[in-house]
Each structure stands twice: as structure tokens, then as C-alpha cells.
Specification:
23 strands, 411 residues, mainly beta, seven-stranded mixed beta sheet
Length: 411
């Protein structure tokens, strides 16, 4: 993976939920979500602790919102993502779906660009490192695995295909990223199978999501990735986006669709759009233009110098975050390739002397014709791998070095 030279604006501590900017189309009352897997007591997946699903559902009906909250709180986690190359943190919500494996379901936009992730179990206050098992950015789903967590309680998973307009719901989440006891928002389902275009309102990130549940429950910053529960206390959706206007509106991914992706990610089945694990990271910030073919520019005086022996050039300085990356004053005379706008400190690219203005032309045996081609070549590499990288310096010297890759930020 490589980073573009257009970093997001600071997101601060709380993840701003996606705001629906366009309700593209409402496809009617039928919900096309897939059925979730059937949990079993032995698997620790989606089964109510200490009781059958039917008995737990019956009990939840008599307890109302308070009973549903008590039922789900043991499975709810606060997710904190550290965006090391942006100098930021972001917070959201998730919930345990596989107790034995320690798997947590959340929104991908909660952990987007994260370099490290932790999850705090709201019922005990214990915090665990979380590994990114895999993501589907287009569907806005991510699966995390808690390290060293035992005795977890999975959320009871419901049937989103059985949801109808008017179904009472309760949204649960880490409101404003404040941590502590989860906040709740009651409402009803008032739309099915919605297609929305949403933006986070700060960084310019946008996405289009299909088959969404629409609810009157007020989803707010930090709630993203939290459970949307039905009247029996089972999870029927993943809180994802907030609506606009005077009336509270929220949108959730149907749990059937979310769990179908969770199963695929958890078993490591690759497919278009799905990333498994963490990709390797070269440590360069590249021009984000679609073509990204470098156009040579005049060399700036003393932009870079060779040492006395004419050997490897001294780096022109590395970046702590990608915020300082900018178009270099001079670009290497190589075309096509990926123009380097900046190099992040402590990465493989910094260690071998790649610098702003250099043009990367080959990585891991693959020719590189653009920034997107560099990203594609890196997507097949794992952290810790040592790969050959060829680049042309601003001075016109072609170099090849073996580079040890780091761990890429989450997609």
C-alpha cells in the first residue's frame, strides 16, 4: 500500500458518522439481505449466554429498551483507531460476534487509515489490542480480532430479512467517542433496502451503500459500528450513517449482509473488494492523480546532492505524518512511474534513501507506471517482506535496493 498526497482533515477523537448526502433510491418494502449464520453453543457465535435464543428473546420482550441494553452491553466494545501517519486518533463502536476467536464487527470507516487499533470492552473496562482480520471498504465492514481476550460474550444475531417497516429498534454506540457506558437511541424501522450516498463531513471521504435499513433512531458521532437491536434484543443491523434534516434518521447495514462478509473475511476467502490482513507498506506518499505519470520539472538548485564519492544520495528529509507532503520542486527524468511527494520517517523507503521528486518505476518484480499501479503492486506484499524497488533520482540516477516493508494503514 502507498499513501496519497492528499491527507484527510483532522478527525479528532470521535469518528464523525457518515452523513447521508443523497438518498439515491428507495427500492420498496422487500429487504434483500442474506440470512445470518446459525450460532451454536459450542461455537460461541451469536448464541445468548446461558440460555437458548428463543428463551432469551422471550425474556428480552418483557424488559423493553433496558432489557435489550443489558443483554447487549457485554458484547459492545469502544474502538479506538490510531492514525499514525496522520497524527490523529478516531473512535467508534463494535460488537463481539465470535467469542472463541475474539472477533469483533465494526464499520470500515471507523478504522480507515489506522496504523493501530484497540478495543475496550464496555462491560469490564478492559482494553485489548485489536488486529485487523480483514475489510470490505465498499460495503463499509471490518472484522477485528482482540488479542488475549477470554470469556467474551457474543451479541445475539437476528434475522434482518424478517425486519419490516415499523419494527422497534434500539441503536447502541460510543456516542461522541467518550467511552464509558454505551449510549442508546430508540426508534423504529421506517425504510428498507435503501441506497444512500454518504460522506463523513470532514475529510471529504464519500461512499455509496446499498440495501440499508433506515431508522428513526438518532445515530450520532461515535456510534458507527455499533449494534442496532430489534425488539427481541437480537442485532438486526450495524449502525453506519446519520441522516440530515430536522427529524432524526439513521441508516444501518443489515446484519445478514454484514455477517455474510464476516464469515468470508474470518475464513480468509479473498474476493474483489475484500482485503485480508494487513498489506505491506513502502512508506512513500505519492501523487494522487489518476494518471500519475511524472512530467519532468526543472531541478531546484541544491534540491539534492550526491556525496563526495557519487554514491547514494542523502535523503532530503522524511515526514512524521503525510500532512507535510507536497509537490516536489523537481521531478526525476523518468516516465512513466509514480512520483514521490514525500517519504515517511522510519519506513523502508526512508532507510534506502528514496526522496521527494524521485520516481518509482518497479516494485517486487512489477513495472510501475502510475501511483495506482504502485498501489496494486504493493497490495500483494505482506509486512516484513523484503522486495526489490527500482527508482530514478532527481539527478537522473537509477537505483535498485531491497526494502523491508512495514505494515500499511487500514484501507
Amino acid at each position: 500500500m502507498v499513501m496519497t498526497s492528499q491527507p484527510p482533515a483532522p478527525r479528532g477523537r470521535a469518528v464523525v458518522p457518515l452523513i447521508v448526502v443523497t438518498l439515491v433510491v428507495a427500492l420498496g418494502a422487500g429487504c434483500a439481505a442474506l440470512h445470518p449464520r446459525k450460532g451454536s453453543g459450542a461455537s460461541g457465535k451469536g448464541r445468548l449466554p446461558g440460555q437458548s435464543r428463543a428463551a432469551g428473546a422471550a425474556a428480552a420482550r418483557t424488559r423493553g429498551d433496558a432489557g435489550i441494553y443489558s443483554l447487549l452491553r457485554p458484547s459492545v466494545v469502544d474502538v479506538t483507531a490510531t492514525l499514525g501517519y496522520d497524527g490523529e486518533t478516531a473512535a467508534g463502536t463494535g460488537f463481539v460476534v465470535d467469542a472463541r476467536a475474539g472477533l469483533v464487527l465494526t464499520n470500515n470507516h471507523v478504522i480507515r487509515d489506522a496504523t493501530t487499533v484497540t478495543a475496550r470492552l464496555t462491560s469490564t473496562g478492559r482494553t485489548y489490542p485489536a488486529r485487523i482480520v480483514g475489510t470490505d471498504p465498499d460495503a463499509d465492514i471490518a472484522v477485528l480480532q482482540l488479542s488475549g481476550a477470554t470469556g467474551l460474550t457474543p451479541a445475539p444475531v437476528g434475522d434482518s430479512a424478517a425486519v419490516t417497516v415499523g419494527t422497534p429498534v434500539l441503536a447502541i454506540g460510543n456516542r461522541a467517542g467518550q467511552g464509558g457506558a454505551p449510549a442508546t437511541a430508540p426508534g423504529v424501522i421506517n425504510g428498507l433496502n435503501q441506497t444512500i450516498r454518504a460522506a463523513d463531513g470532514i475529510s471529504g471521504f464519500t461512499e455509496t451503500l446499498h440495501g440499508m435499513l433506515q431508522t428513526s433512531a438518532r445515530i450520532q458521532p461515535g456510534d458507527s459500528g455499533g449494534p442496532l437491536a430489534g425488539p427481541t434484543g437480537t442485532v438486526i443491523g450495524v449502525d453506519t450513517a446519520a441522516g440530515t434534516g430536522t427529524s432524526p434518521t439513521g441508516y444501518a447495514i443489515p446484519i445478514g449482509a454484514a455477517m455474510a462478509l464476516e464469515r468470508q473475511i474470518a475464513t480468509g476467502r479473498r474476493a474483489p473488494g475484500i482485503s485480508i490482513g494487513t498489506a505491506g507498506f513502502l512508506g512513500v506518499v505519492v501523487t494522487s492523480a489518476a494518471t500519475a505519470a511524472p512530467v519532468p520539472r526543472p531541478r531546484a538548485p541544491q534540491a539534492r546532492d550526491l556525496d563526495a564519492a557519487g554514491a547514494a544520495p542523502r535523503p532530503a528529509g522524511c515526514l512524521g505524518t503525510r500532512a507535510g507532503a507536497k509537490a516536489p520542486a523537481a521531478v526525476a527524468p523518468a516516465n512513466p512511474g509514480a512520483v514521490v511527494d514525500g517519504v515517511l520517517c522510519g519506513t523502508g523507503a526512508s532507510e534506502v534513501g528514496i526522496a521527494p521528486g524521485d520516481v518509482i518505476t518497479r516494485v517486487a518484480g512489477h513495472p510501475v507506471s502510475s501511483a495506482s499501479a504502485l498501489s496494486a503492486a504493493m497490495s500483494g506484499c505482506r509486512p516484513g517482506a523484503v522486495v526489490p524497488v527500482t527508482w530514478t533520482t532527481v539527478a537522473g540516477v537509477t537505483r535498485t535496493s531491497l526494502v523491508r516493508l512495514g505494515a500499511a494503514p487500514a484501507p
